[in-house]
Amino acid sequence: MKALLLVLAVSLVLGGGYRTSAAELNTSLIEQQTGLKGTMQEPGVFQVSYPRKDLHPVVAGVHMTPPMGLTAWCSFQQAGDHVMAMGDIVLTEDQVASVMDTALANGLDVTALHNHFFWDSPKIMFMHISGMGTEATVTSAVGKVFAKLRETSAKKQGVPIANIDPAKSKLDTSEIDTILAAKGRLTDGVYKVTIGRKTTMARVDIGKAMGVNTWAAFAGTDGQAVVDGDFAMLESEVQSVLKALRHAGINIVAIHNHMTGEDPRMVFLHYWGIGKAPSLAQGVKAALDSQQLK
């Protein structure tokens, strides 16, 4: 019996039944696809990095350099028959939309967007990405993200600007209500619609009044308006909401948690958009429709 088990074990190894992570990763392909040099961080985990030497932010008088947290990176690890990628992309504010669009369009998940510093000029943001698939597919997708990062580093992106005074808003709020299928409230020229979600914490049900909600605040006119707000999402809803808002030209400004220990876990997304009020409302509605709302 022992001899038989030994023969089976050897045949599985020789036949590929067992996988050795370090041996499976094609590090040359990863470097070629991403255009970056990498290093094996630990057995089976290969990481490429992109120090943002083109950025020269000053944080409260301190001149920041790449070793102080200004290095974008992505790590790759074998996961069964697939390869897993996980990374953190260092961006200026005006790079976020185009780099995020590239990640989403190429099958990667965007899992967080936030700042690491106060008082930084220019403002630096950090976007976390992840992906799973064949090594060629995942490394190609990550490579396109870094290519877009390099491309947009060379030129300033357009910033949507509108001269809007909320106190002078003239919005057709009934149209917003119809599009969103929800009733809002007008306060000092700002029309705000709030839609509650539910989760539990410490075995207690919590919802809309405790901050578990999605909201959209509109100001301006029907022809030129601004919308800002917050989406409360299940983890499974994050990518569809991101795609719907970006498809509508609405910018994502943060993705993070507001609580810990809740069940189901809620992820929150903050957004900002400028355009015609009905179009903005339709973009928000498309994101709502992508959720598992009851």
Rounded Rg: 23 Å
How would you sum up the major sheet? 6 strands, antiparallel
Q: Output the CATH topology of the largest domain.
A: Yope Regulator, Chain: A
Q: What's the helical proportion of residues?
A: 25-40%
Mean pLDDT: 91
Tally of distinct domains? 2
Distance between the termini: 57 Å
Assembly type: single chain
CATH architectural designation of the largest domain:
2-Layer Sandwich
Our estimate of the beta-strand percent is 35-45%
Instruction: Give start-end ranges of low-pLDDT stretches.
Output: 1-23
- Class by SSE composition: alpha+beta
State the strand order across the main sheet. 1-2-5-6-9-7
Overall shape: it is: globular
Care to count the β-strands? 17
CATH class of the largest domain: Alpha Beta
Tell me the series of helices and strands, N- to C-terminal. Answer: HHHEEEEEEHEEEHHEEEEEEHEEH
SS field, number of helical segments:
8
Question: Would you kindly provide a written description of the structure presented here, covering whatever features stand out?
Answer:
- The chain has 2 domains: 17-153, Yope Regulator, Chain: A, CATH 3.30.1460; 166-289, Alpha-Beta Plaits (2-Layer Sandwich), CATH 3.30.70.
- Helices cover 29% and strands 35% of the residues.
- The protein has helices at residues 2-14, 21-24, 27-34, 96-105, 135-153, 173-180, 238-247, 277-289, and strands at residues 38-42, 45-51, 58-59, 62-63, 71-79, 82-92, 109-114, 120-121, 124-133, 185-187, 190-196, 199-201, 204-206, 213-220, 225-234, 251-256, 266-275.
- Strands 1-2-5-6-9-7 form a 6-stranded antiparallel β-sheet. The protein has a 6-stranded antiparallel β-sheet with strand order 10-11-14-15-17-16, covered by helices on one side. Strands 4-3-8 form a 3-stranded antiparallel β-sheet, with no helix packed on it.
- Helix 3 packs parallel to helix 5, helix 6 (173-180) runs parallel beside helix 8 and helix 7 (238-247) packs antiparallel against helix 8.
- The model is unreliable at 1-23 (pLDDT under 50).
